[in-house]
Model the fold of this input.
Amino acid sequence: MSLLEVTDLRVSFPTADGLVQAVRGVSFSVENGRTLGIVGESGSGKTVLTQTLLGLTPGGRVEGKAVFDGTDLLSLRPDQLRRIRGAQISVIFQDPLTSLHPLYKVGWQITEMIRAHDKSVSRKQALDRAVELLGRVGIPRPRERVNDYPHQFSGGMRQRAMIAMALSLSPKLIIADEPTTALDATVQAQILDLLIRLQQESDTALIMITHDLGVIADIADDVLVMYAGKAAEKASKHDIFYRPHHPYTKGLLESIPNSSAAGDRLRPITGQPPSLIRLPSGCAFHPRCAYVMERCLTEQPRLAPVGDSGDHVSACFLPVMAAGLADEAEELRRRAVGQGRREAAARIAEEIAERPEAEGSVIA
Amino acid sequence: MSDTLPRDDARPLPPEAAMEDDVLIRVDNLVKYFPVRGGGLIRRVVGQVQAVDGVSLVVRRGQTLGLVGETGSGKSTLARCIAGLIPVTSGTVTFEGRNITNLSRRAMRPVRREIQMIFQDPYGSLNPRRRVGAIIGDPFAVHRTASGAERKKAVQELMERVGLNPEHFNRFPAEFSGGQRQRIGVARALALRPKLIICDEPVSALDVSIQAQVLNLLADLQREFGLSYLFIAHDLEVVRHVSNDVAVMYLGRIGESGPRDQVYDTARHPYTVALLSAAPAADPDAAAERRRIILTGDVPSPINPPSGCRFHPRCPKAQELCSQQEPVLESKLGDPAIHQAACHFPVQAGEIMARVAGRERR
Done:
């Protein structure tokens, strides 16, 4: 059984402007020792999704199930959840400066975390553990640095301290929400390296939330691509990068400047991500999709297996074999779109023919 | 004097040999220190932040110079010095053959029409209480080049050109998304038909799909108006995509510079090599095969930079000489004169630097 099994999770927030549908039915699972990468643009719901698991979305209407190690997290009382949060599931946030308290020493913050969950640990023991953890995440002279305040740490060191804190109670699952986005490339490389090493040492499961496909390529085993609060595509890392099926995944991959085509025009996805209050009808991606068909405007595609492997699922009406960036796949996609358009045109023409009294409207 | 040199259109010429009419802006030995004051009553200067320490570079007409560096490398300070937004400590900035260093506000005014900036943060760089039309029209008002209906028409043309709906003239910045706000910034920069636009991390705050839209827009405008860009970014793939030439900054100095492909394909400075190896590529197979060089430590403080080569405390190749003697920025290992690196022990082709990440891939 999976360590974490999320089924049909829905989160919405009532606001003055209307209901914000942040997460609209997402299911996924994470196994011990594996890394699930969650990718998506701003507003795709990737952060709300994981924070809901930890009870960090007050005011949200939550539906669905999230079974962690046999317990449904969404049915727990706040005090029960508090015992799991930090001890069994810990979080690393994007901005280490705002997630560390500026007025307390780094070491104190780690010992507090340890003692909050286990009162039997003495202050002295907890401090020794903090020193050991800081050393483990690569902070030089941890015995001295444990007495520093967060502002005395650089950005990379703060993120290391956050990781040390996340590890302090040997959690089974770590949720890392854009942990390297605020860091420089060389420091990002250090942190990713550290996360991979620590994960291998302790067989921890990791959920890595990021908008950076480069980070996903580096660290993930499986990938969930989110768009407008739903899973657009879910597959192994290899399938996502080399055999993308959903036009959004494909668009994301093609948007990235890459070395082989330096200087050429990029192929961005047109338009803007939708408002989560007034979502487009049918498939939420259809206004931006290069392969939009008639049914995309009215029907919501379900996640269904595509490509050759059963683990690769995509929520798109394109033919199941139309996965990948090769010409054959493109041909399949084009043909499906063309056929859809012809059928639609024929049907509309028929409808008009049946109503001779109607003014003949022009069909583009 | 440079007329006698053979001119190769495919390759930019070295700074010394470049024909003057090819060069739009030249920066020579630019230094910018910020004083650090003590906490006492007199606020004595107790140190200097050596933000930019002797940088020389050239931006050519119609071309893009990419400036790469990490936080604290001084790239934004350098940009602000070039744009004349802050006074320089020493060194010169020459625009179209004219020295524009530390000009008075009045003398700088006509130059500002030619040099514009686009900032990173599309939220912070637009006044939230002014309408978009007024924001984009400001340059016309400041330089008194158009007013009334004429200004409105010019603004709407600009909005259309950068891909905004001209009917949204009366909206406030908050009604636009991040990508659209960056387009507003581009329109404002473009208003006076400048020759140089300094782009300071113009796409870093944007999602990838929107980032590509803005990069394409910048490329189109460059072609259409013959613009030159000084393009500052920390994303190496973005810089590779847009630049003709690339300069890599580290702690206030240029570590390596040259034509894009030479810097990316045969990097000589160990810092460039480490930076290139650290940048995550969106390609799992390449990521698994790549040998990442993990640098130890963080960028040192520019208040008290390391002696000799400023990179030596983190450099896997550092030797004793590196801490004693500052390396000169020059061409290495038989590279063409335009490809320069400041390193005593430049990286050979195919060389594997020590301290590569020794982790097992699954």
